[in-house]
TrEMBL record:
Biological processes, Gene Ontology terms: lactate metabolic process
Protein's UniProt name: Lactate utilization protein
Source organism phylogeny: Bacteria, Bacillati, Actinomycetota, Actinomycetes, Micrococcales
InterPro entries cross-referenced by the UniProt entry: 4Fe4S_Fe-S-bd, 4Fe4S_Fe_S_CS, FTHF_cligase-like_sf, Helical_ferredxn, LUD_dom, LutB/LldF, NagB/RpiA_transferase-like
Keyword list, A-Z: 4Fe-4S, Electron transport, Iron, Iron-sulfur, Metal-binding, Repeat, Transport
Length: 486
């Protein structure tokens, strides 16, 4: 994917995308606001959740060992994965060890983060998404553009065409007379997926939370497909980020009150599934848990940045972000889009080596709306500024100066000498006398075009036209008239 500025410019030109995003995010925002207003102590819950997460992160190693012991005692095989490649290898080995050519999947940001579907496909194993929105993305050979609603950028007519054109190659075909009515689209997906549920011998999931004291994994979802994956197959593999651990069931209760209201705008999730190991004759008889690092200890080592690991993937920050609403998730070039992705990706992967990652902290107006709605109190605007500093510092070691650095040096040269600054003011005054640009708010005129390198600014915004008279000129004129010297 290209860096955010390039991708965003293309997204802004897509009027259909902008219309779909505006409608969907406005609907989710309104639902969330309604159910949050019902909770008198909502702000207290946010503070409590942040405190629980921070305390857990302070002793994360201890809680992970407790989780491992609890899982093992219940018949679960626990694996540790340093990075995406190791996690994908582990899951692939389990599937191939059972001679499988396909698996079904619960919607999982973590498996998308590590590129599990693609890694399994390279080894001859087809991974079928069972969440409706993820199914749309997969059949459309697309990328998710939202944490909660991966197909938020698609309209009903587009989904119908995807089903009619692609379902047959993946299994049961869509009905020939399929319309774009939501009920009919959902029914077609249900029939298509039912065959996969009944046939699958192995499922792959993530987990919203992992309770250390009991070795319990938790998945919350709205369609019931997760429960089908978690109960029907013989083998279950759960890929879980190490930050998903919570110490006790009491802590879990707190987050189950915050998550549905923040994400789907519901008082509670339609399906909350919990599973604790292997139960003979009931559910999967072989359970594996892959505890994934993949940069999380890098973020944990950051004194301020570690708060990003509080994130419970509710997507509330995306739904209030004016930038996300206009460009969508694809522009971020990551499975984690929006404000949280703009800080999570640099903290997980580091800055200074990938231009796409380095551009993400700048994909924000710093309006602060994301921080106001975050259920675990992450200071997203503050972390965005911090990551911008980290990006700049990372490039100070580069012997090739960037255009921004050259511009700053040129500015310092001009502003560092009174005579040079005076000449620049006179030159800008001449420009200010020219009939350029267009009218801006307040009656002033702005320059809508400048030659390179000024075009880097005017390509996205107007530059206020310089005043005809500089402050020095005004002072000299008015001061002399009043008997004062500048």
């Amino acid at each position: 994917m290209p860096p955010f500025p390039v991708a965003a410019q293309a997204a802004l030109a897509d009027t259909t995308l902008r219309r779909n995003l505006a409608h969907a995010t406005a609907t989710i925002r309104a639902k969330r606001a309604g159910v949050v207003a019902e909770v008198e102590d909502w702000e207290d819950l946010r503070v409590q959740a942040a405190a629980v997460k921070d305390a857990t992160l302070d002793h994360l190693g201890e809680h992970l060992l407790t989780l491992e012991a609890s899982l093992t005692a219940r018949g679960v095989r626990v694996h540790w994965a340093r990075d995406a490649a190791e996690a994908c290898r582990l899951v692939g080995d389990i599937a191939l060890g059972h001679g499988l050519e396909e698996v079904v999947k619960v919607k999982s940001m973590t498996t998308a983060e590590i590129g599990l579907n693609e890694a399994l496909a390279e080894r001859g194993v087809a991974a079928w998404e069972t969440d409706l929105a993820e199914l749309i993305v997969q059949l459309g050979e697309d990328l998710p553009s939202h944490i909660l609603v991966p197909a938020i950028h698609r309209g009903r007519a587009e989904i119908r065409e995807i089903f009619r054109a692609r379902m047959a190659a993946a299994g049961r075909p869509a009905p020939a007379d399929l319309s774009d009515e939501p009920a009919e689209l959902a029914a077609a997906a249900r029939l298509h997926l039912r065959e996969k549920f009944l046939r699958a011998r192995m499922a792959v999931s993530g987990a919203n939370f992992a309770v250390a004291e009991s070795g319990t994994l938790v998945v919350v979802e709205s369609e019931g497909n997760g429960r089908m994956c978690l109960t029907l197959p013989e083998v279950l593999v759960s890929v879980v980020g190490i930050e998903k651990v919570v110490p006790t069931w009491e802590d879990l209760d707190l987050f189950l009150r915050l998550l549905p209201r923040s994400s789907t705008g519901e008082r509670m999730n339609p399906y909350t599934s919990t599973w604790s190991g292997v139960t003979p004759g009931d559910g999967p008889q072989e359970v594996h848990v892959v505890l994934l690092d993949n940069g999380r200890t890098r973020a944990l080592a950051e004194r301020e940045g570690r708060q990003v690991l509080r994130c419970i993937r509710c997507s509330a920050c995306l739904n209030v972000c004016p930038v996300y609403e206009r460009v969508g998730g694809h522009a971020y070039g990551s499975v984690y889009p929006g404000p949280i992705g703009a800080i999570l990706n640099p903290l997980l992967h580091g800055v200074g080596s990938d231009p796409a990652t380095d551009a993400l902290p700048y994909a924000s107006t710093l309006c602060g709306a994301c921080a106001q709605v975050c259920p675990v109190g992450i200071d997203i605007p503050g972390l965005l500024v911090r990551e911008r500093v980290a990006v700049v510092d990372a490039h100070r070691r580069d012997p090739r100066p960037k255009a921004e650095a050259l511009a700053m040096r040129a500015g310092a040269w001009g502003l560092g000498d009174a005579r040079r600054m005076g000449l620049a003011e006179r030159a800008s005054g001449l420009v200010g006398r020219l009939p350029l640009g267009r009218r801006m708010p307040g009656g002033r005129r702005g320059l809508s075009w400048l030659p390179f390198p000024g075009s880097r600014w005017t390509g996205a915004r107007d530059l206020p036209a310089p005043p005809r008279e500089s402050f020095r000129q005004w002072w000299s004129r008015t001061g002399r008239d009043e008997g004062h010297r500048p």
